[in-house]
Specification:
9 strands; 9-stranded mixed beta sheet; 9 helices; nucleotide-binding; binds ligand LLZGTKA7; binds adenosine-5'-triphosphate; alpha/beta; Carbamate kinase; Uridylate kinase; EC 2.7.4.22
């Protein structure tokens, strides 16, 4: 079940004033969605729009941790299919997430939203190395924290990284921002007749092998009772709406 807001720097009465449902969130941004109208890579318009929406959350006192995917640049599995060593491909994929995080930080800072990039792979002189307690301190101080380089290990995805970081930072919820409206009974990109779920349990997602999130990530959130909400980032206002308790996308929890 989605929990009420957890303890942190702002008081209950402050949260009451802004009426946000969550105190601290982990937002997973799809790398692929960053391409927007561009042919490849990153569309600055998408970054600016996301920065605006994230800024609205910061403005009402919500602590925002972010994991960005890398699918717009490199995916290890795809590179491996093309003949590359899998681990090398995964390293390239993780480095792609650092590039996306740097671009997102740039957009946030241009919108005067204080933000930090931490990397699971040490990259001295470019970004800070991930350290949980430091990350939590930044969040508590109101900075947006971008957790990059996934888990730092090959054979994982940024969905797993998002769930892992969400659990580590004691987020109230993992919000998976994607290109579709939520979780469907089949891939809506390939099946126009797919129907959307409002709610699913972890076990239903696992049993039905619903492909919106990898199964390792679902096992992790199930084991730690971390609710996940999948929603459409291309729908203006959806992020703020769901943080305020509105109905958006699909909720996955223990039921
Ligand atoms: N049952 C399903 N319900 C919803 N979406 C599904 C389902 N099965 C497959 N998908 C596909 O999963 C995609 C969501 O993955 P998305 O690209 O947002 O995440 P990702 O692959 O983790 O991101 P990245 O681009 O960072 O690698 C949707 O675009 C959708 O087409
Ligand atoms: O913990 C991780 C996270 C990611 N990778 C590699 O990066 C790419 C991009 O991430 P997406 O989740 O697909 O957006 C991924 O395909 C992996 O190759 C990783 O190795 N470990």
């Amino acid at each position: 079940m989605e929990s009420a807001a957890k303890s942190g720097s702002s008081t209950k009465s402050e949260r009451g004033a802004n009426k946000s449902k969550y105190k601290r969130i982990l937002l997973k941004l799809s790398g692929e969605a960053l391409t927007g109208d561009a042919e490849f890579g990153i569309d600055p318009k998408v970054l600016d729009r996301m920065a605006l929406e994230i800024g609205q959350l910061v403005g009402i006192g919500v602590q925002v941790g972010i994991v960005v995917g890398g699918g717009n640049l490199f995916r290890g599995a795809a590179l491996h299919e093309a003949g590359m060593d899998r681990v090398t491909g995964d390293h390239m994929g993780m480095l792609a997430t650092v590039m996306n995080a740097l671009a997102m930080r740039d957009a946030l800072e241009r919108s005067n939203i204080r933000s930090r990039v931490m990397s699971a792979i040490p990259m001295s002189g470019v970004v800070e190395h991930y350290e949980r307690r430091t990350g939590i301190r930044y969040l508590t101080a109101g900075d947006v924290v971008l957790f990059s380089a996934g888990t730092g290990n090959p054979f994982f995805t940024t969905d797993s990284a998002a769930c892992l970081r969400g659990i580590e930072i004691d987020a109230d919820v993992v919000l998976k921002a994607t290109k579709v409206d939520g979780v469907f009974d089949k891939d809506p990109a390939r099946h126009p007749d797919a129907s959307q779920y409002d709610h699913l349990t972890y076990d239903e997602v696992l049993d039905q092998k619903l492909g919106v999130m990898d199964l390792t990530a679902i096992c992790l959130v199930r084991d730690h009772d971390m609710p996940v909400r999948v929603f459409n980032m291309n729908k203006p206002g959806a992020l703020l709406n769901l943080v305020m308790g509105g109905k958006e996308g699909t909720l996955i929890d223990r039921g």
